[in-house]
TrEMBL record, chain A:
It comes from Caloramator quimbayensis. The chain crosses the membrane at residues 24-54, 66-85, 113-135, 244-263. This is Energy-coupling factor transport system permease protein. Pfam families: CbiQ. The keyword Coiled coil does not apply.
From TrEMBL, chain B:
This is Energy-coupling factor transport system substrate-specific component. Signal peptide: none annotated. The lineage of its organism: Bacteria, Bacillati, Bacillota, Clostridia, Eubacteriales. PANTHER family: UPF0397 PROTEIN BC_2624-RELATED, UPF0397 PROTEIN SPR0429. It comes from the Bacteria. The chain crosses the membrane at residues 7-28, 40-58, 70-92, 104-124, 144-167, 173-199. InterPro entries: ECF_substrate-spec-like (IPR009825). The keyword Membrane applies. GO terms for cellular component: membrane. It comes from Caloramator quimbayensis. Pfam families: ECF-ribofla_trS. The keyword RNA-binding does not apply.
Length: 274, 213
C-alpha cells in the first residue's frame, strides 16, 4: 500500500484509459454475474478471464501476490469451517452420498468437499475484477466515477476524503502509540499478556477520536469557506467525455448480466457436482 | 431436508428485505434531508479511522476477529446521526476490505453499516447531544438497546447475503454471525458506549452565550 492509501499503478493500457465509472460498472456486473451461479465451470472460466484481464492491464504479479495469498488462506479457513459445521451439506444439495470419512456417525461426503472447492473458486473469481478496478483507477478519479454512476456527489466526496485521510489518521495513531510507548506502556507481543495489550490498544482510541473530531471541524470549515455543497451538482477535474472504448465496455457489462440471467434460467440453475 | 432449508431461507430473505425497507423509510422520515458539509467530512474521516483502526484485530475464530474499529460505529452514529453512522460503516468497511484484502465481502459490509445506523437513532432524542455534553442516565440503557437492535438487523442482512449471494450453508453462517456479534457486542459494550459517555462528560454542559434574536 502506497503513501496515498491506494493501490493505483500508473501504466498506459486499455484499462487505464477506460473511464473509472465504466470499470466500476464492469466490477458490479461481474459480481452480479458470479452471485447468480453455483457452478465450478463458470467460476473457473471467469477466474481465468479475470487474470488475463489483469495481465492485459500490465499489473505486476508481485503486487497481486499478497492479496492472492490472503484470499487463498481465507478460503482455506472458510472451507475447513464449512466442512466441520456442515459435513453433509453438498450431499443434501445433490442427493448423492459418497461417504469419504465416517467419524462417530458424522459423515464427510465427497460432494461437500466439492462444494467447498466450488465456493472457494467463487470467491477467488471475484478477486481479479476488484483488483483490476483498484490497480488501474486513479484515486482522484474514484469520486468522479461514483458520481457518474448516480451516487450523490457528497457521498462520493466522502469516499475521496476517506482515501485522502487514511494515511494521515494512521500516522496519528502511530504517533499516539509511540507517545504511549515512550511512557512505558507496552504494545508489542511479548511485553505483556494479550489482555493487557488489548487494554492498552483501547487507550489510544480516545485521543485518536478527539483529534479526529478536531480534524472534522477544520476540514469542514475549510470546505464551507470554499462553498462546498452550494449547488445540486458539481463538476470534476478528472471527468472526461466517454469514448468508443467506454461504450464498448458498457455493452460488455450489460451483456454479461443478460447472459448470466439467460444461462442461469436455461442451463445451470443448480449446484453442479461431478 | 432440502425443502426445509430453502423454506426457512426464503422466509428470512423476505424478512431481511422488509427490515431494510422499513429501516430506510424510517430514516428518510426522521432523518435530515441531505448531508451538511460537516456530515460529509465526518463520514470521510470516520471511514478513514475505521480503516486505520482495522489494523488492530485479534482473530477469535475462522475469518472472524475481534476488532476495535467496530467501537467507532456507535460513536460516530451518536455524534453525527444515523445517516453518517450508516455511511461510516459502509464506506469504512468496504474501503478497508478492498484496500487490505483485495475483495469486498458485501454482506458483512451491511452488518457494519447497520450497527452505525442504529447507533445513530439515539440522536432523535431532543435532549441528547454528545458534543454539547447533553447526556442523561436514561440514554445509557437506550444506547445499549439500539446497539443490540442494530446488530440483529445487520445480522439478518449479513445472513441473507451470505446464504443467497455467496452460497454459504446456513448453519455455518449462523455460527460465524454468533461469534462476530459476541465479539462486536463486547467491543461496543466495553469501549464504544463508555467512550460516548466519556466524550459527552468532557464537553462543557452550559455556556453563557445566548442566541441573539
Amino acid at each position: 500500500m502506497s503513501r496515498t492509501g491506494s493501490l493505483y499503478i500508473d501504466r498506459n493500457t486499455i484499462f487505464h484509459r477506460l473511464d473509472g465509472s465504466i470499470k466500476l460498472m464492469l466490477w458490479i456486473c461481474w459480481t452480479i454475474f458470479i452471485f447468480m451461479f453455483m457452478d465450478i465451470r463458470v467460476f473457473a472460466i471467469m477466474t481465468i478471464v479475470g487474470f488475463v484481464l489483469l495481465r492485459i492491464a500490465q499489473i505486476p504479479f508481485k503486487s497481486i501476490k499478497p492479496l492472492l495469498i490472503f484470499i487463498i488462506i481465507f478460503t482455506i479457513f472458510n472451507s475447513i469451517l464449512l466442512i466441520i459445521v456442515t459435513p453433509e451439506y453438498g450431499s443434501q444439495l445433490t442427493g448423492k452420498y459418497t461417504v469419504l470419512l465416517n467419524l462417530f456417525g458424522v459423515k464427510l461426503t465427497m460432494q461437500t468437499l466439492f462444494y467447498a472447492l466450488t465456493l472457494s473458486l467463487k470467491y477467488i473469481s471475484l478477486l481479479p475484477i476488484t483488483l483490476l478496478f483498484l490497480f488501474t483507477t486513479n484515486p482522484s478519479e474514484f469520486a468522479c466515477s461514483l458520481n457518474r454512476l448516480g451516487v450523490s456527489y457528497k457521498v462520493a466526496y466522502s469516499i475521496s476524503i476517506a482515501l485522502r485521510y487514511i494515511p494521515d489518521v494512521r500516522d496519528e495513531m502511530i504517533n499516539i502509540i509511540n507517545a504511549q510507548e515512550a511512557r512505558g506502556v507496552p504494545f508489542k507481543k511479548g511485553d505483556a499478556n494479550t489482555i493487557k495489550l488489548l487494554k492498552n490498544y483501547l487507550t489510544i482510541l480516545f485521543p485518536l477520536l478527539i483529534s479526529s473530531l478536531q480534524r472534522v471541524d477544520v476540514v469542514s470549515n475549510a470546505m464551507d469557506l470554499r462553498g462546498f455543497g452550494k449547488y445540486k451538482t458539481r463538476t470534476w477535474y478528472n471527468r472526461r467525455p466517454l469514448e468508443l472504448n467506454d461504450y464498448i465496455f458498457i455493452v460488455i457489462s450489460i451483456a454479461l448480466v443478460i447472459l448470466g440471467v439467460f444461462v442461469k434460467n436455461n442451463f445451470l440453475n443448480k449446484f453442479y457436482c461431478i | 431436508m432440502k425443502g426445509f432449508f430453502t423454506s426457512i431461507a426464503t422466509w428470512q430473505g423476505i424478512l431481511s428485505i422488509v427490515i431494510v425497507v422499513l429501516a430506510s423509510l424510517f430514516l428518510f422520515r426522521k432523518g435530515k434531508k441531505g448531508l451538511s458539509t460537516r456530515d460529509v467530512v465526518a463520514i470521510g474521516i470516520g471511514a478513514a479511522l475505521y480503516g486505520a483502526l482495522s489494523y488492530i484485530s485479534i482473530p477469535i475464530g475462522p475469518n472472524t476477529s475481534f476488532r476495535i474499529a467496530v467501537a467507532l460505529l456507535p460513536i460516530f452514529g451518536a455524534i453525527f446521526g444515523p445517516i453518517v453512522g450508516f455511511l461510516v460503516g459502509f464506506i469504512g468497511h468496504a474501503l478497508n476490505d478492498a484496500l487490505m484484502n483485495g475483495s469486498v465481502w458485501w454482506s458483512w459490509v451491511f452488518l457494519s453499516a447497520f450497527m452505525g445506523m442504529f447507533g445513530g437513532i439515539i440522536t432523535f432524542d431532543k435532549d441528547f447531544d454528545v458534543l454539547s455534553g447533553m447526556i442523561q442516565k436514561k440514554h445509557y440503557f437506550k444506547m445499549y438497546m439500539y446497539a443490540i437492535i442494530g446488530m440483529l438487523v445487520g445480522s439478518v442482512v449479513a445472513y441473507a447475503g451470505d446464504v443467497f449471494l455467496y452460497g454459504e450453508p446456513a448453519a455455518k453462517v449462523w455460527l460465524q454471525i454468533i461469534l462476530a456479534n459476541a465479539a462486536n457486542l463486547v467491543v461496543i459494550a466495553i469501549v464504544g458506549i463508555p467512550v460516548i459517555i466519556l466524550l459527552a462528560k468532557t464537553k462543557s454542559k452550559n455556556n453563557n452565550l445566548d442566541v441573539d434574536a
